Backbone:
């Protein structure tokens, strides 16, 4: 009986895919037949052959697929890096836009607050001026009422044979200008200076040259004639001697209130008119005595 010798299979360690593909490519398409003769059998023993069929591998396809995979991986990595860069740029743009919007809002709020403050200031200034004018009108009305009461009580005690007609001593203030001559000398200087300031603005404490208060204008007009007067209205009305409103002359100082406590003064310019720095609404004006009759007058010239 013949003995068939079997050749044991000796397997080497598994190689990497790339090396295997290379080897398979070299041997691709080749069908190898390995014949192994048993050396241990008798001489007349039939040789035993073992046929191994090697598979055919396409080395070109494997290499192409591997290169495609590597390229695809590289492209994916580049895309991810690009996406991250775009996300970073978008985040920075959003942060900058938010910062700019916050700054713009703060600036808008500041401007709005400044506008509100300015409106409030103008409103308060207007209310203050209106209050001053109302107080001035009320004070003058009270003074006129007191003067009227005093005049009525004084005239009630006159006798029939000693009384005089109203044409003798009771002429109105506006009539006094018809009996006065044109000013001359110092009076003319005072009147001319006062009239030259008509249209200037009224400012509390103003002493010129383009803005005045009542006593500042009177002081400057008399200074133009070389005469120094005190600065305050009640001090100016306390100077010189008292004169009747029916006997006024150009250059006389008119006052409102009491002589020692006047709150407003002006200059009589003749023709039943006066020039004075009235208030912040009217400024320096020339008005008829009937528009706001004064309480009294003093003469310094």
Residues:
């Amino acid at each position: 009986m013949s003995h068939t010798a079997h050749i044991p299979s000796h397997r080497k360690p598994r190689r990497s895919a790339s090396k295997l593909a290379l080897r398979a490519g070299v041997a691709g398409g080749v069908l190898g037949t390995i014949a192994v003769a048993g050396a241990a059998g008798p001489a007349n023993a039939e040789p035993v052959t073992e046929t191994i069929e090697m598979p055919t591998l396409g080395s070109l396809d494997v290499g192409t697929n591997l290169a495609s995979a590597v390229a695809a991986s590289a492209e994916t990595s580049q895309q991810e890096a690009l996406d991250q860069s775009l996300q970073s740029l978008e985040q920075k743009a959003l942060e900058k836009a938010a910062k700019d919007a916050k700054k713009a809002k703060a600036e808008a709020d500041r401007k709005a607050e400044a506008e509100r403050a300015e409106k409030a200031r103008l409103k308060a200034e207007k209310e203050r001026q209106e209050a001053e004018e109302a107080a001035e009108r009320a004070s003058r009305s009270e003074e006129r009422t007191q003067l009227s009461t005093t005049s009525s009580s004084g005239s009630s005690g006159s006798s029939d044979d000693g009384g005089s007609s109203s044409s003798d001593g009771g002429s109105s203030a506006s009539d006094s200008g018809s009996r006065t001559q044109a000013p001359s000398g110092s009076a003319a200087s005072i009147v001319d200076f006062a009239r030259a300031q008509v249209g200037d603005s009224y400012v509390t404490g103003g002493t010129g040259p383009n803005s005045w208060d009542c006593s500042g204008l009177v002081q400057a007009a008399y200074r133009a004639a070389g005469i120094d007067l005190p600065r305050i209205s009640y001090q100016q009305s306390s100077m010189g001697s008292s004169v009747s409103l029916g006997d006024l002359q150009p250059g006389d100082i008119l006052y409102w209130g009491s002589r020692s406590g006047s709150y407003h003064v002006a200059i009589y310019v003749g023709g039943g008119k006066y020039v004075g720095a009235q208030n912040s609404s009217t400024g320096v004006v020339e008005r008829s005595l009937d528009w706001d009759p004064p309480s009294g007058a003093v003469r310094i010239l």
User: Anything to note?
Assistant: The CA atoms of residues 54 and 124 lie 108 Å apart.
